Amino acid sequence: MMVAIGLVILLVMVFGGFIISGGDIGAVLHALPIEMMVIGGAAVAAIVIGNSGPDLKALGGGFAKVFKGPKYKRQDYLDCIFLCGKLTKMMRSEGPVALEPHVEDPQNSAVFAEFPRLLADKTLVALICDSLRLVVVSSGDLDPHSVEDVVDQHLKSHHHEAMGPANNLQWLADALPALGIVAAVLGVVKTMGAIDQPPEVLGEMIGSALVGTFLGVLLAYGIVGPIANRVKAIIEEDHKIYETAKQIIVATLHGHPQPLVIEAARSGLSHANQPSFADVFDGLRAR
Predict the structure, then answer these.
(1) For residue 73, is it left (φ>0), alpha (ψ between -120 and 50) or beta?
(2) DSSP letter assigned to residue 108
(3) Neighbours of 203 (CB within 10 A)
(4) In a domain, 13, yes or no
(5) Is pLDDT at 126 greater than 70 in this prediction?
(6) Which of 113, 106, 98, 131 is nearest to 243 (CA)?
(7) Is residue 21 domain-resident?
């Protein structure tokens, strides 16, 4: 919703200001389709050349994120705390043997089944299960710092891959002004080929060429750049659910009391997604 509002404000302010200042919007609209074809076509071609099929699919998903917003809401973070809390409590009270069937086959686990939205996230399930599986298969001399290093590497790899769409969009935003210049140069070449035409004709042709430069800059800094920034912010926000799971598991392995572990994970969330103290601890007691 905010994206659509922003685009409307952008177009109204830019073109409205041009019209109010006495500019001929007709000349811009006349040149716009061709310039957009050159710049947009070159941009799409550059993205296709520089990316694989999965990368392009991820880029489409990145655009969708702009309109959908973050995947996870406050209830999902609360559920993540409940899920990790139950598993780590089981590990402490009943031992790794009781934990083994849940981490070896999460799809058929009664604990994971309570949280279907989290179970659908393969990355989150793999992070939790692989981390706790190390406890199950260890011989009792597991170093929590080593587990933390493994989890950090897991998160680093996933985060790098998840950032692909935002990085591609930012690259495109950086390239668009140059592609606008390409369109403008083609317009100048066309104008030079008609140098024998009257000044009013030449003026119209030069104006059309300059629309390419204008369009490249507007698309880069007014649309694609902000979209790239928004995609990055959404990816960063959704990444916090993995950090929450990591924090609970690693802190438990360090031997910290569970109430302290849970509160540290809860208080580390952004205010928009942070469940209340009562929601967390009353919910844990109820489970």
Answers:
(1) beta
(2) G
(3) 13
(4) no
(5) yes
(6) 131
(7) no
Residue 239: count other Cβ atoms within 10 Å of its Cβ: 18
Q: What is d(CA 173, CA 216) in angstroms, rounded to the nearest whole number?
A: 9
pLDDT for 139:
60
What is the count of structural domains for the chain?
A: 1
Mean pLDDT of the residues in the chain: 89
Domain with 156, as residue range(s), is: 27-287
Token pair for 19: 């019209």
Query: What pLDDT sits at residue 32?
Result: 87
Task: State the Cα angle at 84 between 79 and 87, rounded to 5°.
Answer: 125
Alpha carbons 265 and 128: distance in angstroms, whole number: 15
- CA dist., res. 70 & res. 272, Å (int): 11
In a domain, 6, yes or no: no
Cβ distance 172 to 50 under 8 Å? no
pLDDT at 83: 94
Report the 10 Å Cβ neighbour count for 40.
Answer: 15
Residue 11 lies in a domain: no
Identify the H or E element spanning 50.
none
Mean pLDDT of 170-175: 95
How many other β-carbons are positioned within 10 Å of the β-carbon of residue 190?
A: 13
State yes or no: pLDDT of 27 exceeds 70. yes
Residue where the block lists tokens 């609360």:
78
Q: Enter the pTM of the model.
A: 0.85
Q: Which two tokens stand for residue 166?
A: 């935002």
